[in-house]
Amino acid sequence: MGTNKSGEATVGRSAAILGAGLALLAGIFLGFTIRGMMDSPSKGGMPAAQQQMPPPQAQQQQAQQASPALLDRIKALEKQTQLEPANVAAWTELGNLYFDTDQPEKAIPAYEKSLTLEPGNPDVLTDLGVMYRHVNKFDKALECFNKALAINAGHVIASYNKSIVLEHDKNDRASAVAALKALAAKNPQAVLPGNKPVAQAIQELSQ
User: Which residues, 6+ apart, have CB-to-CB distance to 30 below 8 Å?
Assistant: First the structure.
């Protein structure tokens, strides 16, 4: 996301996590957000990511269950973005709050608007990728992660989430391993969600 949070699965909100098992992370470290969706380890080390998004009605119910303060903040940001359509920070925060309340269909356009105004933010791209993954648009998710990595090749969460989508959604383990190896080449000491060193994740995923 773009503020502060934590999670795992496709890691998101700034870097969030995707998945049931291998969480996807979209994390913005040091001041950014990391969110998680699911975290249930599977055999072989990497979690199996395939969290299905709830139907629209369920998403609406989840949003309604959010705290009154959070809902008030969302309403305030919706109004602010109408009055100040060029306010990047407002669009990003609105996307983050939609992300937090499981409203990917609303988070996606908010993040897209943020990126239109301020292109090249790898954390927002990572969170956007997580949201696309949540609506089963896996190619769009990979496109976002790849864009984030083109800007910051050592982005741990984008690399992790990319490996999750490749392995669990695209059934391409070789490319998933390659994504983690690319991260290791850039940052050999990188630690993935769950405190797992990237070298260990590569070894387990290669088995």
Answer: none
